[in-house]
Fold this protein.
Amino acid sequence: MPTAAQIKAAFAHMVEDERSIVNTIYAALGHPLRASDGKRARTAQPQPQPDHDADQDDEEEQQQRPRKRRKGNDNGSSKYDPRRDAYSVLADSGQFFVIAVHAYDTIPNTLEHGAAHRWCPNALVVPPNAKDQANHARYLANFAVWFEHISKFNDAYKFDAPLKFLYLYEQAVWNELVDQMASAAATVREQNTNRLKKAPELLIPPTHPDGSIHPRIRGEEKSHRGVNHPLTRNYLLSPADLKHFPEMKFDASDKDLVLRYANPLPATTTDVLTPQSDEAKEIVAKLVAGTKRFTNAEYFAALYKDPAAVRKTNDGLFLGFLVIRVLRHVWTGPSTAEKGLANKPAIPAQCSSRRHRCFKFTPRMVAYAVCQVRTMLHAGDWGKKDGKYSYQTLFNGVVKLLSSEAEGIEAWAQQTLEALNEAVFSSHALTFEDDEDAGPDAADLLMQEMTANNFNTLIDSLLLLLAQPLDQVHIPFLSFLARLYHDYRLGTQTHTRIAMTVLT
């Protein structure tokens, strides 16, 4: 345990901006602040906590209630403002962690391994067995992605020294910060899962825009998911198995696929599904008997753009409409899930993309969406396992595949990510100028007006100068004029005035 003198000395050793970040964290968590010499200055009152909501219902809420000030930070900025305070950036990074770093590795494990490796390499002893070594390597990779995100989020925040100080000298505060991040991660993951489970309309493919599901899927009831329903069963099968089953029409004729339909569906699958081929009968019989189980050896049909057209395993893989809709739901909001941003001028003002400054997908983001797609389809809740099916293996495999630099894979992976970017973001750029509350205020506008007036006066004087014979004009002053013209990027009207005067 470090002594009080060591803690004060370590705090004083940091530069002012770094000490300010630590004090912002102290204040947010209700700890006394420190003066520049490291002494406790005063007891701080806890600041308003960041809003950990998953950003999924913001647009819908705005349509239902009058606009009011959002949960914000001590500087008045919203959760979508990149200039929000340093503590809020760190707390929100927990949300980013689960949707863009790793869906199943925990934040405490990742940060413990990563922080020890970065700031105290001798503090963590990893057992030599292969499993622990592999986990450690994965935690370090997770930490690197997370740390890069917080480091690039706002150039004004230099997090390395402040976080090192907390990890080495203020372990209790560090643990509280990690807990806040973990809470944010759990909140966004639960909200994503619950909302997607309750949106069966997303299961209707875009090829049937006016279609409906028969039998009806009622919310998130387990008896209406997995192999208990012909649609979710089809989506969970591999493309090779799916080809043996009749194509669903997404109208009342789909009821013919069901021998007996009650509300809710019968508990057993035996009486529900009516396969129309011997191969399909065998598949259903094995599913019912439990001798056929879904495993990680094959990707399921919902991940493919067109399961019927699959010749090679990677044909259209991860381009399925459900993957795209889940990515939209998570990153640009539920109102964009089905149709995307086609009719919108920009990325919505209130969504995860703005909150986390992300508008290009990474393999980890796609992996999270893939796991949410399967969770949406099967009868169970979010978890690491579904029988013999491992979601951790699924997640890690998607990341490994889309991150591969192997010949023949890298180009395909890049094309896949680019296709997903286009399907979700529709070439909309996420820029600072688009940020909510980023517009100029009255002072900004007045300063621009006054500057423009002064500049116009200067231009009028320079135009008179240019009207004089060239040998009477001081050459250095002309050089200054050229630089001025370049720096201020004169408007068309002024540009024309100068040209006409010179020609005259």
Q: What stands out?
A: The first strand starts at residue 385 and ends at 386. Confidence is low (pLDDT under 50) at residues 57-76, 259-273, 432-447, 486-504. Residues 4-197 form one domain.
